[in-house]
Design brief:
heterodimer, A: about 290 residues, mainly alpha, MetI-like fold, 12 helices, globular, B: about 290 residues, Rossmann fold, six-stranded mixed sheet, disordered N terminus
Chain lengths: ~290, ~290
């Protein structure tokens, strides 16, 4: 009998008069409200403080391996006194960022279209994919010597290596995105009268955007990895070089200044990419 | 129901209702004819008149979705013909031709997630290039409003809706093109009973008002008997007609009818046939696993 009352309650225009006398009954179910902000993670804060404390203590009491390592206080002192207000420090930032962004941008510009075509043209895939798969397992840093030989300037070769780092990841993600498009979407677009070109532009591309976003997230992380190593090996500028010089010139605090800077730079780029991704997918906004 | 009365005028805009005669003649479908030779459909024939509500019931893998895909123009056939209003729609050597005259509503739902409800609904009108945006949107809003005030969610994205709402929007997206036949591929499969009951009411309202020919595919016999004028029970693969039953329950259908003697008699006649085929499919499935 409860079955009957459900019909009246949920069908918003049932034949029974009961429907109109109980308007409140047809409301959608109440969702549990989510907290707008996570509660403050005080355990996390304590752990971070403990980390720095332990580091400082290990240095102060010369724990094994810590003989030449500076403590956090020294690092901050060095950062403030020797770097934060110098032009060359910020130039290192700028130049590394420039390399990352250029490499990343070229990787997007070439990787996204290539992934789209690899996913949608069988013939093209048959020809190009084996070559692609042959090159993909080669780590970006293995490209360093070749890159230096090939490109006329050091700058170009570093940007190229950065590009390599992101390119394969972006392409393979987009390719995978095209292959996992719902068949129903393509069918329906066809049924509703969309042309092949429209289907590509209006169905395939939006459907692939989430995969492009994944490629961006992974790609930006790899570009920072690669650019730092490439700078250490083959460049005389940038944050990677700054870190390496700290080591070569036996000034360990500088090594830490470099590491911290790279960490912050990487985090900033990830943040930037997140913002862009959210813009790309307005349909995934929060309820 | 009163708020749905506009649905027809909104959809058809004065078109004659007497269209939607479907004739499926001796259709066979063999997948991989040179290799594994999986016979999905074997000499399947059925005719349905304009305005018929036809339900096709069968165990999973019996070829009922293949049949619908052939009708929709998504899949080729190996032999036979399909006619719509006496016009050849599909045969062996005709290229695939999906069209807005027979739009499908899928079981998993296939609203475009990157488009708002309104943009989904108007997509067909816009793509066929006949309707300017403003007019398409006005008609979309009108249709949404007519089916239970859905115009209030016109600007929402599909991910923000319940699955029941999504399916209702999908049916409207099909209906706005004034199709000759509405193809429903287990659209309520993933829903719980309460939602299903609601959706059945909505669908029956739409059927009554729009007078469209509907082909409804399901594995749920009770659903089929409750909704349709005619129920075809399919055999398990290779799929052919096992039973063709006329459901002469009066319309409008109510849930109480499911307790009536007529309904129970119908169910008794069909349920054994369905179970037999399900059992066969199950046993074959086990063999394939071994």
């Amino acid at each position: 009998m409860s079955d009957r009352s459900i019909i009246i309650a949920t069908h918003d225009a049932g034949p029974s008069a009961a429907a109109s006398t109980a308007p409140g009954a047809a409301k959608p179910p109440i969702r549990p409200r989510r907290r707008a902000w996570p509660t403050f993670n005080w355990r996390g804060l304590v752990a971070v403080v403990m980390f720095f404390l332990a580091w400082q203590l290990a240095v102060t009491f010369k724990a094994p391996g810590f003989h030449e390592i500076p403590g956090p206080i020294t690092v901050v002192q060095t950062l403030v006194s020797d770097f934060l207000f110098t032009r060359s420090y910020w130039e290192s930032w700028l130049i590394s960022f420039k390399r990352v962004l250029l490499g990343f941008l070229f990787a997007q510009l070439l990787g996204v279209p290539l992934g789209l075509v690899l996913g949608s043209s069988r013939r093209f895939n048959r020809i190009v994919f084996p070559v692609f798969e042959m090159m993909r397992p080669i780590p970006p840093l293995a490209w360093v010597p070749l890159s230096i030989l090939f490109w006329p300037t050091n700058e170009a070769s570093i940007i190229f290596i950065t590009f390599i780092g992101a390119f394969f990841i972006i392409t393979i993600n987009v390719y995978d995105g095209v292959r996992s498009i719902k068949q129903e979407h393509l069918w329906l677009a066809h049924s509703l009268g969309a042309s092949q070109l429209t289907i590509f532009r209006r169905i395939v591309i939006p459907a692939v955007i989430p995969s492009i976003a994944v490629g961006m997230t992974l790609g930006i992380a790899v570009t920072w990895n690669v650019v730092i190593a490439a700078e250490m090996i083959a460049s005389d500028s940038g944050l990677g070089r700054l870190t390496w010089e700290g080591y070569v010139s036996s000034t360990p605090p500088v090594v830490f200044v470099g590491m911290v800077s790279i960490g912050i730079a990487g985090a900033l780029s990830t943040l930037l990419v997140d913002v862009i991704e959210r813009r790309m997918m307005p349909w995934k906004r929060k309820r | 129901m009163r708020d749905m009365l506009d649905l027809n005028s909104a959809a058809a805009a004065g078109k004659p209702a007497a269209a939607g005669k479907v004739s499926i003649r001796n259709v066979s479908k063999i997948y991989d004819p040179e290799g594994a030779r999986v016979v999905a459909l074997d000499n399947f024939s059925v005719d349905f008149a304009p305005g018929d509500f036809l339900a096709i019931v069968g165990p999973s893998g019996c070829g009922k979705s293949t049949l619908l895909n052939i009708l929709a123009g998504f899949d080729t056939l190996t032999s036979g013909e399909v006619y719509l209003d006496d016009k050849l729609l599909a045969s062996v050597d005709r290229p695939l031709a999906p069209g807005p005259d027979r739009v499908v509503v899928f079981q998993q739902g296939a609203l475009f997630p990157w488009k708002t409800v309104l943009d989904n609904v108007t997509y067909g009108l816009m793509k066929q290039g006949r309707t300017p945006r403003a007019e398409a949107e006005a008609r979309g809003i009108e249709m949404l409003k007519a089916s239970g005030g859905l115009d209030r969610i016109a600007k929402s994205f599909p991910s923000q809706l319940s699955s029941g709402m999504q399916r209702r929007v999908e049916i409207i997206r099909a209906l706005i093109n004034d199709p000759k036949v509405l193809l429903l591929d287990e659209p309520f499969r993933a829903m719980d009973t309460v939602n299903k009951v609601t959706m059945h009411r909505h669908l029956l309202d739409i059927f009554r008002i729009s007078q469209k020919t509907i082909m409804f595919i399901t594995h749920d016999l009770e659903e089929a008997l409750f909704l349709a004028d005619r129920v075809i029970v399919m055999t398990t693969r290779p799929g052919t007609v096992k039973l063709d039953i006329k459901v002469d329950l009066p319309r409008p259908r109510t849930r109480e009818m499911m307790a009536s003697d007529a309904y129970i008699a119908l169910k008794e006649r069909t349920v054994m046939a369905v179970r037999e085929e399900a059992q066969k499919a199950f046993e074959r499935g086990e063999k394939e696993m071994a």
